[in-house]
């Protein structure tokens, strides 16, 4: 089992039956640019290293590993479907998980501990309303005031520059878009995620405030790796499970 110091735990008021965490890049067996706790099996790391790293995680045997495609596809677990970018379940012992390396991981639960969810919210997912779709499916019978959301480590606005065209859809959100050059803007993904959560009445929103790009010893960052001339990088995972 991985050392608990290598994991982040949400500081929120979820029921005791809900367990949640997000990994760092610390505490695994992978080498070089994947050092050391890479959990992505699609990034060029050795398969045996990835499998060994995954086996270190709490509740690893209960995790459904998604094939994430930056979509707004939401999956109810358990399911044979694994291509999508958000998952939810009301079943005990079924872990919801999403991998990230700059995009926003969001873990959700209700205050009664009935349903848990995990969302991979990048530029495309936020643009196609993956948060709203997840809340509407997973918590259709619950009031937003009963929901908790935790935003895990992701790339901060100081390091996330995109084209003005890509950011245009978020222009109505105060604080989300900052001009940075000709045809370029800096995008605040957390502002967007918070705005979209609040639009579906989720008010209890918590966050690490950690930037994956700037905290190199703690987190993988796809954009930082590309800026350093590397083809790819490792992935972290954010996990939530309803225990008996």
From TrEMBL:
Keyword Hydrolase found: yes
InterPro entries: Cu_polyphenol_OxRdtase, Cu_polyphenol_OxRdtase_sf, Cytotoxic_necrot_fac-like_cat
Keywords assigned: Hydrolase, Metal-binding, Transferase, Zinc
Catalytic activity: inosine + phosphate = alpha-D-ribose 1-phosphate + hypoxanthine; S-methyl-5'-thioadenosine + phosphate = 5-(methylsulfanyl)-alpha-D-ribose 1-phosphate + adenine; adenosine + phosphate = alpha-D-ribose 1-phosphate + adenine; adenosine + H2O + H(+) = inosine + NH4(+)
Record Gene3D superfamilies: CNF1/YfiH-like putative cysteine hydrolases
NCBIfam families assigned to the protein according to its UniProt record, in alphabetical order: peptidoglycan editing factor PgeF (TIGR00726)
Family the entry assigns: Belongs to the purine nucleoside phosphorylase YfiH/LACC1 family.
Protein name listed in UniProt: Purine nucleoside phosphorylase
Gene: pgeF
């Amino acid at each position: 089992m991985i050392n608990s110091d290598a994991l982040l735990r949400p500081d929120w008021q979820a029921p005791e039956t809900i367990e949640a965490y997000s990994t760092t890049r610390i505490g695994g067996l992978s080498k070089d640019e994947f050092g050391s706790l890479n959990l992505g099996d699609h990034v060029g790391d050795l398969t045996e290293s990835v499998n060994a790293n995954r086996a270190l995680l709490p509740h690893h045997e209960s995790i459904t590993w998604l094939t994430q495609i930056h979509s707004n596809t939401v999956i109810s677990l358990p399911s044979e479907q694994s291509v999508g970018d958000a998952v939810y379940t009301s079943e005990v012992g079924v872990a919801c998980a999403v991998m990230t390396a700059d995009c926003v991981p969001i873990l959700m639960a209700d205050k009664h501990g009935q349903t848990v969810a995990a969302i991979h919210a990048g530029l495309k997912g936020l643009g196609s309303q993956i948060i709203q779709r997840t809340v509407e499916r997973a918590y259709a019978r619950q009031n937003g005031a009963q929901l908790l959301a935790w935003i895990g480590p992701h790339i901060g606005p100081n390091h996330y520059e995109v084209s003005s065209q890509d950011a245009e859809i978020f222009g109505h959100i105060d604080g989300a878009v900052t001009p940075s050059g000709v045809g370029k803007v800096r995008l605040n993904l957390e502002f967007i995620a918070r705005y979209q959560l609040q639009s579906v009445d989720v008010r209890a929103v918590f966050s690490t405030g950690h930037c994956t790009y700037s905290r190199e010893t703690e987190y993988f960052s796809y954009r930082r790796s590309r800026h350093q001339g590397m083809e790819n990088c490792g992935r972290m995972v954010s996990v939530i499970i309803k225990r008996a």
